[in-house]
Amino acid sequence: MSTRLSTGGRLINKGAPQSFTFNGKTLKGYAGDTLASALLANDQMLVGRSFKYHRPRGIVASGVEEPNALVNLGAGGTFEPNQRATTTELFDGLGATSQNHWPSLEFDVGAINAKLARFMPAGFYYKMFIHPRPLWKYVYEPFIRQAAGLGKAPKVRDEDTYEHFYAFCDVLVVGGGIAGLTAAKSAAASGAQVLVFEQTAHWGGRAPVDGGSVDGTPVDKVVDELVSELSDMTNVTLRLRTMGAGVYDHGYVLGYERLRDHAPEVQGPRHRLWRIRAGHVITATGALERPLSFAGNDIPGVMLASAVRDYVVNYGISPGDRAVVVTNNDDAYRTALAIKHSGLDVPVILDARVPETDSPLITAAKEAGIRVLMGHGVAKVLGGKRVTGVAVCAQAGEGAVLEEIECDTVAMSGGWSPVVHLWSHCGGKLLWDNDFAMFRPDVDKAPTGKDGSGFVSAAGAANGYFGLSEILSDAHASGGTAAKATGHAKSRRKAPKAESVDEAPMAPVWLMPQGADVTLRGKAWLDYQNDVKVSDVQLAAQEGFESVEHAKRYTTLGMATDQGKLSNINGLAILSDALDQPIPQTGTTTFRPPYTPISMGAIGGEARAEVFQPVRRTPMYDWHEENGADWEPVGQWRRPLAYVRPGEKLSDAVNRETRNARENLGLLDASTLGKIIVKGPDAGRFLDMLYTNMMSTLKPGKCRYGLMCGENGFLIDDGVVARIDEDTFLCHTTTGGAEHIHGHMEEWLQTEWWDWKVYVANVTEQYAQIAVVGPKARAALEALGGMDVSQEALGFMEWADGTIGGFDVRVYRISFSGELSYEIAVKASEGQAFWDALMAVGAAHDVMPYGTEALHILRAEKGFIMIGDETDGTVIPQDLGLHWALSKKKEDYLGKRAHLRTHMADPTRWKLVGLETTNGSVLPDGAYAVAEGTNDNGQRNVQGRVTSTYYSPNLDKGIAMGLILNGPDRMGEVLEFPGTDGKTYSARIVNPVFYDPEGEKQNV
Q1: Which of 25, 156, 421, 702 is deepest in the core (most CB within 10 A)?
Q2: 213 φ, ψ to 5°?
Q3: DSSP one-letter code for 140
Q4: Where are the strands (E) in 110-251, listed by range?
Q5: Could you give the CA distance from residue 857 to residue 876 in angstroms, rounded to a whole number?
Q6: What is the pLDDT of residues 578-604, one digit of tens each?
Q7: Secondary structure letter of residue 433 according to DSSP
Q8: What's the number of CA atoms in the CB half-sphere (13 Å) around residue 634?
Q9: Model pLDDT, residue 400
Q10: Residue 911 above 80 pLDDT?
């Protein structure tokens, strides 16, 4: 049984006991424990169930590669599923529950799946659930959704807070083992700004566990000295509990720091997401030990040899009283010696190799009295919910059992694989090292920057070096290279020299399945979480899935939450063997960020609840709030949908505001419209390329409506452009488009027309803008006094600067309502005061503010399009009858060539028309017009759709616009529109301009 040892435990404080619960049972641990080590100390071997077959699962690793020990942590607002017990630091009061079982961990009815395994081989989902097709929706899909997933999703809002942090450095070292610390010291000695990340709570990595000495000093003391020296350097920043999550182009790196997981009582954010720009990145991420594939290798008590060693040395825990070590390399002998020195029994070491001479580690094991069987392996692990023994076989034989040995722990080691994830994220290539059976970084094909130079290097075990001397030498060199790459002189210090008695190389013998008879004795597992077996990968190859990416998806190998950290290399070997080709030819799957999962809270940072997006408010926001505004989110802005008075319904308020704007005087807060200054000698030329119509011919003092398309020809924005002077234009955009269009302009200036003399600035928030709308608009402005706003002085589509009511203003004679309208811009700081002045003078003219819903109705009555309603990312100007806005004089503009494509010129594209229901009712938004016949799926054919629909209080009927097949040629024709309410609506195709078709009212 697993127990706490009287010796060992370098990371725990036995003077600080901790109490925690697992599945409601109160257990004891110590400060410094992980949840995994504390569970093992309490002999809790069974920690979960596998995904597919619900097989019993125990702890197999000690770090981020752990596939089995996933638990739910916390409750209510602190609940979080799928947390690794191996990386969860213990604290007093921690509450954890196991997952993926019912009704209990010990008795799980889902285990019946294991009995049906022969009917559920790899890929059975794809074959089973495709026929009969009608069963998918009502039987298969609900069943799969119910069975899918591991932990349960939280149902209560997260109580914690999170933050983003921005950092810049010359050299970022990811990994705080002895390689990372040595590289950091080498780089920092040159004067470079160095940032060091270590994902665990402790410095040193594996070195303090594995032992050795450097220049005569024990390696654990060397680590302490390195940390102390680096801490004293002003150009070095050290961060524990911080993972390097991903490496991207141009030295951009994401880091993930856990600030309060281990101390929830501390105030502040729980997690921090680092956004880093580094001149050079050193990946000192170490290596991961591989499991071995033999029957029963998933039974609780079968663990990685390095993990067993960690629990013995770091936490003073015996995973069992008798541990059999099975290996194909020297490193596992360290585990056997650590177990033996702790006073426990190692009945045998089963080594697949038959070396000509014993290495120092093998000799040390034999001298310690441990039985060593060379050329032997495990035929089968005995036991069910925990290990009871092993059946031994000859590695090269036919799998016959030679003897059975009682044990309660199996420590396995299949060699080591460098952690190459970060190296590979940004395009670093890999080499196959046949001597060590591993992929390692190809230093000649490192990730490169724009200048072609490498900006990522690997150090130590992450670079394929495992001897302490090699690690230190490589790390020292990596730090110097990074310093030089960032413009700093290399340190002249010599690399430290390691002295260790166990420097023998850990060359493994690559193991395929151990003979046909052995494989038939039981299932040999590759991916523990997803229940992927050796035979599943062999079946994938047999069925033609020869690409490693295809085999991965067919079998789900490496798709568990550990992302193949334990399973992938073994899986590649099995696939390569089945395809009778070398492993390098098979290749690897794609390494993608993040290295380990990141909390959704950290990704969101401060963006949550009311500040999920930055809330943008106009200068008149408080006035709107005080006067009954029913708010509508428009992009990041909050705009009044309508001003609801006491006793009114929202629809009543909308109808009242819409009628008043036509009959009297309405005010609209239009401050949210995008306002972008485009300035420079080439400004006109630039706008001619951005807009479909000509802007360079616009005269100062004039305005012009413009359309903007993307490269693919689809409409992306529209708005009024005003020419301020010879070199300056002001472009109005939609409310939601200001930032996007500003970015669109900058992208083209920086990447395509970088030599044009143009400057753009988004000044949306610098100005408040108010639309003064209605037949009494001019009278109200004249009552305020100031500049001449008559038709003769300021005609339609003109603008002028002046003073009104004592305010400096810029007045645009433009209209989105079809009424006499002025849009007036003032300084943002004067927006509320100007609004108040308009409301005061407008009282004599029946002034009434109106919101965005009335705005929509007014524009729809006039047949004006709205980006986002009449457009959906697939609409071109020609669809909307806007041919007149496509310049025939310009040689080119964005989208012009796209409009020449066959699909764009297709005469069967749906065109914009007006729609009126035959009974005056309102068409459902988005409803489709049905046509004769059905398609291949048995659904009715369609010939158009409603883009926007409203009740018009001015016309007292429902009006709509829609895109209809050959619509402009079918005026008067009646179409049918089935609604989601079960009704079918009949509507007649009409002109989209329902009100004042001649435009007389806006031109007065």
Answers
A1: 421
A2: -145, 155
A3: I
A4: 162-174, 194-197, 213-214, 217-218, 236-239, 242-247
A5: 23
A6: 999 998 888 888 888 999 999 999 999
A7: E
A8: 24
A9: 86
A10: yes
Please say whether the beta carbons of 390 and 405 come within 8 A: yes
How much is the pLDDT for 691? Answer: 98
3-state secondary structure of 195: strand
Torsion 861-863-865-868 (CA) sign:
positive
Rounded to 5°, angle at Cα 787 from 784 and 793? 125
Place of tokens 């000695």: 189
Q: Residue written as tokens 């928030």?
A: 765
- CB of 832 within 8 A of CB of 621? no
Is residue 103 reached through a cis peptide bond, with omega within 30 degrees of 0 on the bond before it? yes
Distances (CA, A) of 551 to 445, 547, 572: 27, 6, 10
Task: Round the average pLDDT of the chain to a whole number and report it.
Answer: 91
Q: What are the pLDDT digits (tens) for 538-557?
A: 988 888 888 989 888 888 88
Q: How far is CA 130 from CA 126, 127, 189, 541, 566, in A?
A: 6, 6, 63, 22, 32
Round to whole Å and give the CA distance between 398 and 377.
12
Q: In whole angstroms, what is the distance from residue 73 CA to residue 151 CA?
A: 10
Exposure on the CB side of residue 493, measured as CA atoms within 13 A:
20
Alpha helices in 711-768 (DSSP H): 738-751
**What three-state secondary structure class fits 444?**
helix
Are the beta carbons of 712 and 778 closer than 8 angstroms? no
User: Token pair 């004795």 is at which residue?
Assistant: 521
**Using an 8 Å Cβ cutoff, are 169 and 485 in contact?**
no
How far is it, in rounded angstroms, from Cα 734 to Cα 730?
Answer: 13
Cα 837 to Cα 774, 787, 833: the distances in Å are 17, 15, 6
Distance separating alpha carbons of residues 428 and 445, to the nearest angstrom: 6
Asked if residue 505 has pLDDT above 60, the reply is no
Please, are residues 257 and 242 in contact by the beta-carbon 8 Å criterion?
A: yes
Q: In the prediction, which pLDDT does 936 show?
A: 83
Interaxial angle between packed helices 332-341 and 360-367, expressed in degrees from 0 to 180 and rounded to the nearest 10 = 30
Residue 632: exposure state from Cβ atoms within 10 A (0-12, 13-18, ≥19): middle
Kindly list the structural domains of the chain, giving each domain's residue range(s) and its CATH number in brackets, ordered by start.
Answer: 3-114 (3.10.20.440), 162-288+418-499 (3.50.50.60), 321-410 (3.50.50.60), 509-606 (1.10.10.1100), 674-765 (3.30.70.1400), 907-1003 (2.40.30.110)
Closest CA to 270 of 281, 285, 257: 257
CA–CA dist 267, 290 (Å, integer): 40
Distance CA 341, CA 332 (A): 14
Question: Tens digits of per-residue pLDDT, 598-654?
Answer: 999 999 999 888 778 778 999 999 999 999 999 999 988 999 999 999 999 999 999
- Secondary structure (H, E, C), 762-793: ECHHHEEEEEEECCCHHHHHHHHCECCCCCCC
H/E stretch holding 977: strand 974-978
What is residue 450's three-state secondary structure? Answer: coil
Distance of alpha carbon 379 from its chain centroid, rounded?
43
Q: Which two tokens stand for residue 472?
A: 């230190």
Instruction: Say yes or no to pLDDT of 514 above 50.
Output: no
Segment 91-123, tens digit of pLDDT: 999 999 999 888 888 887 776 666 655 656 776
pLDDT-based confidence at 314, cuts 50/70/90? very high
Tell me which amino acid residue 796 is. F
